[in-house]
Design a protein that fits this description.
Layout lengths: L8 H5 L51 E4 L3 H12 L8 E4 L12 E3 L3 E3 L11 H7 L13 H11 L8 E3 L3 E2 L9 H12 L16 H4 L2 H10 L7 H10 L20 H15 L3 E3 L2 E11 L2 E11 L2 E6 L5 E5 L8 E3 L18 H12 L7 H4 L7 E8 L3 H9 L15 E3 L6 E4 L14 E7 L18 H12 L5 H6 L1 E8 L25 E4 L13 H16 L15 H11 L8 H8 L21 H17 L1
Parallel strand pairs: 1-2, 1-11, 2-7, 5-14, 11-18
Antiparallel strand pairs: 3-4, 5-6, 8-9, 9-10, 12-17, 13-16, 13-17, 14-15, 15-16
Helix pairs in contact: 2-9, 2-15, 17-18
Amino acid sequence: MSSTTSKFEKLLNGSKEYGNVNHQPDSSKEIQINTPEKTMPFSDQIGNYQRNKGIPSKSYKDSKIYIVGSGIAGMAAAYYFIRDGHIPGENIIFLDQLHVDGGSLDGAGNTTDGYIIRGGREMDMTYENLWDIFQDIPALELPEPYSVLDEYRLVNDNDPNYSKARLIHNKGQIKDFSKFGLEKKDQLAIVKLLLKKKEDLDDITIEGYFSKSFLESNFWFFWRTMFAFENWHSLLECKLYMHRFLHAIDGMKDLSCLVFPKYNQYDTFVTPLRKFLQSKGVQIDLNTLVKDLDIHSDINGKVVEAIIIEKDGKEERIPVGKENYVIATTGSMTEDTFYGDNKTAPAIDLDNSKSGQSAGWKLWKNLAAKSPVFGKPEKFCGNIEKSSWESATLTCKPSAFTEKVKELCVNDPYSGKTATGGIVTISDSNWLMSFTCNRQPHFPDQPDDILVIWVYALFMDKEGDYVKKTMPQCTGDEILAELAYHLGIIDQLDNIVENTIIRSSFMPYITSMFMPRAKGDRPQVVPEGCKNLGLVGQFVETNNDIVFTMESSVRTARIAVYELLNLNKQVPDINPLQYDLRHLLKAAQSLNDYEPIVGEGLLRKFLKGTYYEHLLVENAEDSQEHESFFTEQINRLKSWIGGIRD
């Protein structure tokens, strides 16, 4: 019993729950019924009651924490060790092979060399764990006591995000993107997928389940380009995404369901979080390669006894005591990135025979060689052709290109307000190319006359429509030419090239976490038997959350801290909107492009004049009557209910 809770000794000693908390409850299996034994909130019961501070059962003031990788998952772990574990910040040490913190949340450059961001983040309001952290991290530009979350809300509450050119074709013409265009059989396939058990979808691909008509629909154009799914990726992950974003499906056509930061991901999230952690005394050791963990295993479990590192060309061994903890990021979506510029294409010197040999993957492989509980990294890093794509960052002075971008923007991109409102996808591009102009400036030091625009493509094996090369074979100027062709301004290419710096990034593993997988391929956050080791990031198992989001990285960090320290606090499951009748009905209507869904006429008649009549979205078909035998029965039922009311 800790001194903190000594006044509650009698109560806690008699509790079955204290010290036996399920730190990662699963809403997909929990029966939501209140019983005397149910003392904690339901698994996805989001709200202020979940915001209690974790109370450790003992003091950890002398424990050291070693965190391998300074990406958002590692930083989040440090935050939770401090806030909920009450571990002094000076006891926490980051070990990172890179020369800069932030992991895949990068953002750097200048107007001379060009800015670069390998990727971006589309944010959702239901990221409970992410906002749980950033409600307490001091804002980048607002004064005390305001937080990053306050800043984020200030921007997005007053500058709505949406697109007026989600799809373009025919050399820069806006394509009608008002409909999903799903056939009835494909809508039914989505419903059936939502109903399927996760356990039945091991190693099944998207194209192995959905029909050709689905894969050619506008819905799939929106979905795959927004989330970077390929047809050969995991059907299980696609299902989890559909559950996670069911509440947002109707806003995916115009991207009005998204919220974006004012600046790039590094300056928005990494910079303020790093400053907060350093203010608490946290140490960040960069240029430090972690090669392996020395783990002792016996009948009592697995304990990390040492960390094997390489620094300044010398191998060293950091002892880890039993009261100390190690958090390691397994795998990396941006490792082995190859870079190009205006005059050079990325010099890709990697194939499947050499993949997964870099530091982040090697550490995971070394762990997996020790025990099956650490998963199967080769499932994710062994097929570059199916896990790679290329992005490019354009630093643009005024040109014919920026003038064309203006036409596709909601607001003038120089105004500081929402510009394209998310990606603009070129639907007739052989590369399936998309680009986005986020709020400008995208970097705090960016001059007023500069726009930073991000481009990416999904198809790495196809020649361009104008430049007869694959995107990875192209120089930056050739990528500009392909883009200019699709925008209908190829005749002004010289002007565009003269005023645009381009830095390209080919990433072999950027969608590796989407590769088809089965149970056991990814390790648990705290692998079975591990006493002082937690694994975090995009390649570990959670109950219902998805990958490729900051939220999922933060979730894994939070689970690791709560489980390792056995805190009397849970990590709530994903937001329960997937179970909300309102969102289920809205999604059904949206997938059918607001044509009447089966039973809609009857349901409208039944709900009309009641407290629940607002559940169905109004549409142009509302005035249509669909009389039938069933309508007659519903009318009789309503009369009966009316009689009861009277």
